[in-house]
UniProtKB/TrEMBL annotation:
InterPro entries assigned: Bac_GSPG_pilin (IPR000983), N_methyl_site (IPR012902), Pilin-like (IPR045584), T2SS_protein-GspG_C (IPR013545), Type2_sec_GspG (IPR010054)
Source species: Methylobacterium gregans
Gene Ontology BP annotations: protein secretion by the type II secretion system
PROSITE patterns hit by this protein: PROKAR_NTER_METHYL
Keywords linked to the UniProt accession: Cell inner membrane, Cell membrane, Membrane, Methylation, Transmembrane, Transmembrane helix
Transmembrane regions: 28-50
Family as reported in the entry's similarity comment: Belongs to the GSP G family.
Ranges where the Type II secretion system protein GspG C-terminal domain occurs: 45-150
Membrane topology field: Single-pass membrane protein
Gene Ontology CC: one annotated term: type II protein secretion system complex
Record has Transmembrane helix as a keyword: yes
Superkingdom to which the source organism belongs: Bacteria
Full protein name: Type II secretion system core protein G
């Protein structure tokens, strides 16, 4: 008679192989359900952090570009015109230009892929203004769509 029980196989010199042991379908489904629940709780938090990070990145970049505009002013004695725009920071505009004032023209693009905007004179009598229209690309806005300006 053949003894096919675990005890019989062990006695016969055939120990069960733990590497061949697997998970049941129910166990796999439970694990997938737990992973799904964790993902639904964490994803909105991560997306919120990402949106805030882009806004903070835009604020930092606007300040850096404004500093580059100030360096341009120190070299040339005038701010770039609205017509010249921020390209004046990377392309020579005349005698005294000692730029580029930013490392790369790609640095003149906001985190949402839109070019930073520049106007001179700026609002309320300030000499210039560097700004981004936020994620929505429209004046005003809330959340990620909030405008970010140098002044």
């Amino acid at each position: 008679m053949i003894d096919n029980t675990t005890e019989g196989r062990v006695r016969a010199g055939h120990e069960p192989n733990p590497a061949q042991a697997g998970f049941s379908l129910v166990e796999l489904l439970v694990v997938l359900a737990i992973i799904g629940m964790i993902a639904t709780m964490v994803t909105p938090q991560v997306l919120g952090y990402l949106g805030r990070a882009k806004g903070e990145t835009a604020r930092i970049q606007v300040k850096n570009i404004a500093q580059a505009v100030e360096l341009y002013y120190l070299d040339l004695g005038t701010y770039p015109t609205s017509q010249q725009g921020l390209q004046a920071l990377v392309q020579p505009t005349g005698p005294g230009w000692r730029g580029p004032y930013v490392r790369d023209a790609r640095g003149l693009t906001d985190p949402w892929g839109q070019p930073y905007l520049y106007r001179s004179p700026g609002a309320a009598g300030i000499p210039y203004e560097v700004y981004s229209l936020g994620s929505d690309g429209k004046v005003g806005g809330t959340g990620d769509g909030t405008d970010v300006a140098s002044n």
